[in-house]
Amino acid sequence: MACKRGALIVLEGVDRAGKTTQCKKLFEALQRSGKPAEMMRFPDRTTTIGKLISAYLENKSDLEDHTVHLLFSANRWEMVPLMKKKLEQGTTLVVDRYAFSGVAFTSAKPGFCLDWCKSPDVGLPQPDLVMFLQLSPSEAALRGQFGEERYEKSDFQRAVQNKFQQLMKDRSVHWQVIDASQSVEDVHKDIMTHSLNAINCAQNQALAELWK
Ligand code: NYM
């Protein structure tokens, strides 16, 4: 009998594109439509590794750049057994950031290439759909100031956006660009349509491995 697994759905995008709002809306809409779903986010700041990352992001500690990259990756790997279990049980996972943020943010730093940045995440569960919430820097600026955390600077965010564009050329990943300049409800409608398709397709497909 075909296994009816849940789908792994990831939202990515530059800061202030509305990822967190949209993850929540998607999760709630799936629940209302009777589809088992759960929300996850990376970094998951609740674990021991996540607390190290959180202190780094809040500028309360300094970590060497390679080291923090590997911690971000480890923070995903430590969730893999739970993710696989949920997916196998038929629960769809709506994930706020994943390995793509990991690669885009570190490779935007000097001296890092895309391939090195990807390597620790090779073999993670492959998302069935990665939606990139696209917003121009000028549109993002209209949404207010950046916060106080590390990386929340316009120049760096532009470099991150370029790295995301490079990652989106990879056809082994099911990317879907979403126009995040639309109203919250219209963005949600787009996301819901693509997610329902992904959930249908994932049902009868084995979970693959990322970048393998
Ligand atoms: N970030 C996030 C990374 O640098 N590497 C990663 O692997 C991931 C998942 O952490 N600026 C960065 C992107 C964000 C920050 O922010 C986490 P938030 O608001 O918790 O999504």
In total, the number of strands is 5
- How many individual helices? 9
Widest beta sheet: strand line-up: 2-3-1-4-5
Mean pLDDT: 95
Give the structural class. alpha/beta
Strand content: 5-15%
User: What is the subunit arrangement here?
Assistant: single chain
Taking the alpha carbons of the first and last residues, their distance comes to 27 Å
Biggest sheet features: 5 strands, parallel
Short description:
This protein has nine helices and five strands. It is α/β, with parallel strands linked by helices and 212 residues long. The chain has a five-stranded parallel sheet with strand order 2-3-1-4-5, with helices on both faces.
Word description of this protein:
Helices cover 47% and strands 13% of the residues. Helix 2 crosses helix 3, helix 3 packs antiparallel against helix 5 and helix 5 crosses helix 8. The model has no long low-confidence stretch (mean pLDDT 95).
